[in-house]
């Protein structure tokens, strides 16, 4: 079975972590500081604050931007629950936005329609490794948190994703583009935001009391992160090479392939559709023929683990949806019904790639029949 996702780990990673263990200092310290500086330099911003997870990074970013209980925070519904959790930690209200049909990123048109006077922040994920139209969203004038959990190393018009917003968050979970096992980071050009997050991520040895958190990263994690960051560009290059192989064969089969000439896709995920897109419709199509679950089972039965790229959109967790979300989320529902995420990561062998292509061909032939 070819797994859907897998970290790329080497002897250099093991050595980096071992050196920290041998030093005797394994909690947050000098190595974390070095990792923060290296990530900030790579992204092209002033500084970074490492934390224990991407969720912690979102949570502290919301606090640092002044979001309070009862405020609205805009976010796409086609994401994992981490964003919703961070908003709920504060007691703010999620303002759910539909996605663009081609990029699967947040729709700026739907965002502009749904904004309220209480909307304090917009969280903009660069989903699946493809940057969103961040400049259009920034032009609205509301503070932006870029969510780069799936897009570290991606670029938009020559600048790295994460260098546009008021701040940006990263996740270094085990199966992300680069990993520290668990862990995350906030980067920003604002000293005020970074100072606030550094204050809130640990609670002890403080001259005053406010609610603070145990959100630190360890030097063990940071050492792995530094080692992984050295190879990040090669990780991305390998992902693009694999995507190129997929693009060539799948376009021959008539399967829609992702592309955008103004953006640098890093292919954290590679999606195929279980039916042809019908973007002209204003309503999500009925799922005729095989259900997506049957398609996923077909791949698994043939030795390739595939998944929905998003397990379940946020609006499908919340029943009934508030009136302010009137009109539904047709593009999100369509993507959820149709998209299949196939394996794409640097440690795939040539044999693995050939098998994935071969099974996809078999799947496509079965659907045509």
CATH class of the largest domain: Alpha Beta
| SSE succession | HHEHEHEHEHEEEEEHHHEEHHEH
Number of helices: 12
What is the CATH T-level topology of the largest domain? Aspartate Aminotransferase, domain 2
Strand order of the largest sheet: 1-9-8-5-4-2-3
Helix content estimate: 25-40%
CATH superfamily of the largest domain: Type I PLP-dependent aspartate aminotransferase-like (Major domain)
Largest sheet: 7 strands, mixed
Q: Looking at the chains present, what oligomeric state does this protein adopt?
A: single chain
Unreliable residue runs: 276-289
Described by the principal axes of the CA atoms, the overall outline is globular
CA radius of gyration is 21 Å
**Total number of β-strand segments?**
12
Strand residues, percent: 5-15%
- Quick check: average pLDDT? 93
Which architecture of the largest domain would the CATH scheme give at its second level? 3-Layer(aba) Sandwich
* Overall tally of domains: 2
Distance between the first and last residues' Cα: 26 Å
> Which structural class fits the helix and strand makeup?
alpha/beta
Describe the protein.
This protein is an alpha/beta fold and 369 residues long. It folds into 2 domains: 11-230, Aspartate Aminotransferase, domain 2 (3-Layer(aba) Sandwich); 232-368, Alpha-Beta Complex (Aspartate Aminotransferase, domain 1), CATH 3.90.1150.10. It has 12 helices and 12 strands. The strands form 3 sheets. A 7-stranded mixed beta sheet has the order 1-9-8-5-4-2-3, sandwiched between helices. A hairpin with a 2-residue loop joins strand 6 (155-156) and strand 7. It is globular. Residues 276-289 have low confidence and may be disordered.
């Amino acid at each position: 079975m070819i797994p859907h996702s897998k970290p790329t780990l080497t002897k250099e990673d093991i050595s980096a972590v071992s050196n920290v263990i041998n030093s005797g200092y394994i909690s947050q310290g000098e190595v974390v500081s070095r990792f923060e500086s290296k990530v900030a330099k790579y992204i092209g911003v002033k500084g970074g604050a490492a934390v224990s997870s991407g969720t912690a990074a979102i949570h502290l970013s919301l606090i640092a931007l002044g979001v309070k209980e009862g405020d609205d925070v805009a976010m796409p519904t086609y994401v994992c629950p981490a964003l919703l959790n961070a908003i709920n930690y504060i007691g703010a209200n999620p303002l759910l936005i539909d996605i663009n049909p081609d990029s699967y990123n947040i729709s700026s048109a739907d965002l502009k329609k749904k904004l309220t006077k209480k909307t304090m922040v917009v969280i903009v994920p660069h989903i699946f490794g493809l940057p969103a139209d961040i400049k259009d969203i920034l032009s609205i004038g509301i503070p932006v948190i870029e969510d780069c959990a799936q897009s570290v190393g991606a670029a938009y018009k020559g600048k790295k994703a994460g260098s546009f917003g008021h701040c940006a968050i990263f996740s270094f979970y085990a199966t992300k583009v680069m990993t520290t096992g668990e862990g995350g980071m906030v980067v920003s050009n604002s000293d005020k935001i970074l100072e606030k997050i550094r204050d809130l991520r640990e609670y002890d040895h403080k001259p005053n009391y406010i609610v603070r958190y145990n959100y630190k990263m360890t030097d063990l994690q940071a050492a792995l992160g530094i080692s992984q960051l050295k190879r990040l560009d090669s990780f991305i290059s390998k992902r693009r090479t694999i995507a190129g192989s997929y693009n060539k064969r799948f376009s021959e089969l008539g399967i829609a392939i992702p592309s955008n000439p103004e953006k640098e896709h890093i292919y954290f995920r590679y999606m195929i559709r279980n039916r042809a897109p019908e973007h002209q419709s204003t309503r999500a199509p009925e799922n005729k023929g095989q259900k997506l679950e049957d398609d996923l089972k077909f791949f698994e039965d043939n030795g390739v683990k595939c998944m929905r790229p998003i397990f379940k959109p946020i609006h499908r967790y919340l029943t009934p949806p508030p009136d302010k979300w009137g009109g539904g989320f047709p593009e999100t529902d369509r993507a959820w019904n149709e998209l299949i995420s196939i394996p794409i990561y640097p440690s795939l062998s040539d044999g693995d790639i050939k098998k994935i292509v071969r099974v996809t061909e078999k799947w496509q032939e079965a659907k045509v029949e």
